[in-house]
Design brief:
Layout (H helix, E strand, L loop, with lengths): L32 H9 L7 E9 L5 H10 L12 E10 L2 E10 L6 H5 L7 E7 L4 H4 L1 H10 L7 E7 L6 H18 L2 E4 L8 H23 L12 H6 L10
Parallel strand pairs: 1-3, 1-4, 4-5, 5-6
Antiparallel strand pairs: 2-3
The structure holds guanosine-5'-triphosphate and magnesium ion.
Guanosine-5'-triphosphate (GTP) binds next to helix 2.
């Protein structure tokens, strides 16, 4: 296993951004008021939050490339199959709070499936990936999701369906495939995105969305488990906090 602590993502996450309203499970634009207030009122540096994300899908669909584009901002044309699993940690700042995503990259090859599936547990987000230029890989996403869900508590993970290699398909083909993909996403209760690891299109935006949703959910869970915190709720101010560059943490929660 390789772990890399990469550079701070410059684009701090201030709000939610979806790919298309038709394919989004939630359309809210800002963090829950309780979360904003909790972030604003926290002080200190302890208690960094980390969420686990697992990426699954057929071999060769571009899982590793997607992660490498995001975490290392590079792209390799040559295919090197992932052996078992691998992971990266990416750091975010979300409404002023430091936040990490631990992104697990799994192998699509059948022979590694039992190794990879041992890492599905405790995923706050499950990303099921298919290749926009190979429609068969979309058909297999339901099975990948089912396998990942089996290892997790019901309703404990955000689910994403991601079409990769957008640069390889023409606009018309992409649109047609996306109609199918959005239908699949609805059935899977997933949010749909399309990306290109080669050009970088939508890659940062997608992972920022994953981070924002996972961050808010983990904050809400934490607030719910500490009822005393509710007494402190007041008016939050998301933007001014960011402008002041206030560094806060979750230590109070
Ligand atoms: N043109 C183009 N090629 C891509 C893109 N993403 C991945 N590829 C290529 O597709 C091939 C497979 O990519 P990987 O990222 O290794 O696929 P994977 O899903 O990790 O495969 P396994 O590890 O075997 O499960 C490589 O040759 C990549 O260069 C993309 O967005 N555009
Ligand atoms: Mg791989």
């Amino acid at each position: 296993l390789r772990q890399s602590l990469t550079q701070f993502v410059p684009a701090a996450v201030l709000s939610f951004q979806w790919y298309t309203p038709e394919a989004s499970l939630q359309l809210k634009e800002h963090f829950h008021a309780q979360v904003r207030t909790a972030c604003q009122q926290s002080t200190g540096t302890a208690g960094l939050k980390i969420s686990k994300v697992v990426v699954v899908g057929d071999l060769h669909v571009g899982k590793t490339s997607l992660i490498n584009r995001f975490c290392k901002d590079n792209f390799d044309r040559d295919y090197k199959a992932t052996i078992g699993v691998d992971f990266e940690i990416e750091r975010f700042e979300i409404i002023g709070m430091p936040y990490n995503l631990q992104i697990w990259d799994t192998a699509g090859q059948e022979k590694f499936k039992c190794i990879a599936s041992a890492y599905y547990r405790g995923a706050e987000a499950i990303i099921t990936v298919f290749d926009l230029a190979d429609i068969q890989t979309l058909d297999h996403t339901k099975q990948w999701l089912e396998d990942a869900l089996r290892e997790n508590e019901p309703d404990s993970s955000f689910i994403f369906l991601v079409g990769t290699k957008k640069d390889l398909v023409s606009g018309a083909v992409c649109e047609r495939t996306e109609l199918d993909a959005i239908r699949f996403a609805k059935e899977m209760q997933a949010e749909y995105w399309s990306v290109s690891a080669k050009t970088g299109e939508n890659v940062k935006e997608f992972f920022s969305r994953v981070a924002a949703l996972a961050f808010e959910q983990s904050m809400i869970k934490e607030l719910e488990s500490t009822p005393g915190h509710r007494a402190q709720i007041g008016a939050g101010n998301l933007i001014s906090m960011w402008k002041d560059n206030a560094r806060v943490s979750l230590s109070c929660c």
